[in-house]
Specification:
Blueprint (H helix, E strand, L loop, with lengths): L10 H10 L1 H12 L9 E3 L6 H4 L8 E5 L2 E8 L6 H15 L13 E7 L11 E4 L14 E7 L12 H10 L3 H8 L4 H14 L2 H35 L2 H19 L3 H7 L4 H15 L1
Length: 294
Amino acid sequence: MRKLEYTFKTDTLFKMLFVGHQDLLQKLVAALMGIPAESITQLDVQNEAMQPEHLGEKFCRLDINMIVNGQRVDLEVQVCNEGDYIERVMFYWAKEFASALPSGSKYADLPRTMILSILDFSLFTDCEAYHSFFQPLEVTRHTLMSDKMGFHFFELPKLPEEISDRDDLLLWLALFNANTEEELEQIKALEVPEMEQAINAYYSITASPEFRELERIREKARHDEAQALYHAQMVGRAEGRAEGRAEGEEKTLLEAIRNLMDNLNLPIEQAMAVLKIPFAEQSKYRELLQGQQS
């Protein structure tokens, strides 16, 4: 099998393709949200540009932020689980939701805000379903508190092997899951017009000098990011071993967390994940850091 150099999960390709072909973006969003494509009468991408200087920044997100029929919708592809993913998407949801309220407006004017996450890893290991949708419900009556919060998760490793030209959602997810030319050709052979259009756009974009340059910059940032995380992890381990006592190890870890937060702008949850601090001990370090800041 001929392995693809780039896939639909490649974030620069994902952003270029769907921002450049918003008719395809509309059909993708409709499939992910479970609504007819023709029901989308408004789709405005809020972050179309991919500035080269931003691509070179470590931990840069290449999501697609949209207004869809008056709703805030954020779509992203995540290829690996770096820890605390659920807390991360909740954080981004909160930022999107809060920023949508103009000065002087009523809270009731806040729009419905949805996060759509296509994941190349299994997030919910206790179930086989590849699509999970979460909203806030009362725990015994299951009464919906509000429809303004929603999280869709699509786990690619859980996709069934067989796909059908009658299932739009599975077709789109199979496209993101394709890692070989043969898999793309199998999807194209189903003769679904939007799949053929998306695959043709894929080949056109990946052959373009513009994409190659953006991907070169992005790849360098990925290497820098990986090196920074690895170095921080090694430093944390070395300092922890040098202390040799619980109190010294605690102090070292606190310093390592602060360094990651201050120098790499990591959230505290991601800093603790890099340093492999056990979940049971993370609340202790949060409290210690808060005590130092107060």
